[in-house]
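Discussion board: Methods & Data

I've been asked by a reviewer to show the raw model output for two of the constructs in my manuscript, not just the figures. I'm not sure how much to include, so I'm pasting the format here to get opinions. Each protein appears as its amino acid sequence followed by a line of discrete structure tokens. Is this the kind of thing reviewers expect to see in a supplement, or should I convert it first? Here is construct A:
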Amino acid sequence: MLNNERIEKLKVFLQNSPTDSFLQHALALEYIKAGNNSEARKLFEEILTREPNYIGSYYHLGKLLENSGERELAIEWYEKGMTAAKAAGDNHAYNELQGAHEDLAD
């Protein structure tokens, strides 16, 4: 399936469930693949504003910001994600976020 087809299918699903974090996260990842970082960023920020314990989005938002040259903002999101992951007891996500954070903070 082509990237644009996946994007359109996800948009259709989101019409029925506009605040489904899983669908929004999947759409944001498709937008990144398509080179549409601004739409991906909006979705990740919307997810994390509404549902701060949606841990997986922190890493991807941080990487997107890092790749866009927004280093300090990426570090902030990694830190927020580390806090959320620790509170959720998600050690795998915590370690992944910590590694990304350390790579930037050094």
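Construct B, same format:
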Amino acid sequence: MKIAICPGSFDPVTKGHLDVIKRASKLFDKVIVVVMQNVRKKDSNSFTVEERLDFIKRCTCDIGNVETDSYVGLLADYAREKNAAAIVKGLRAVSDFEDEFQQSLTNMRLNPDVETVFITAKSEYMFLSSSVVKQVAGYGGEVDDFIPAQIIDEVNKRLNHK
């Protein structure tokens, strides 16, 4: 069974994230969407790990080979624990590539048994990030086009400051 890890903070999950997850689910037997917990950033998250996992579960419940999890530690170690063949990362722009390439090389050094697979964002999602969602919602802007319908109410309730 070919297992892929789709890591991220998903704070909150966006339509761009969901697109990458769906596309990865067609390439692998199982995709584990893992909320990576960065202990240095924990105070800057808008949603708890449990809330983010719930959001992802609700948005991927119709994709039979997708599971969710959370992890604190090195992604290379997590991939080894799960016997993953690949780490799937979404790329929005050339600016993403440099950082993701460096992470890929690091993961390859730490765990030579896992490959990194890059999936390029669809054009309608190239600008989209969780940070954009938080900024737009924070000023009372409309985020319906940016996040899945299943989580709109919770995101607006938490982030909309107007």
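Answer (T.O., handling editor elsewhere):
This is acceptable in a supplement if you add a one-line summary per construct. For B, something like: The two ends are 48 Å apart (CA to CA).
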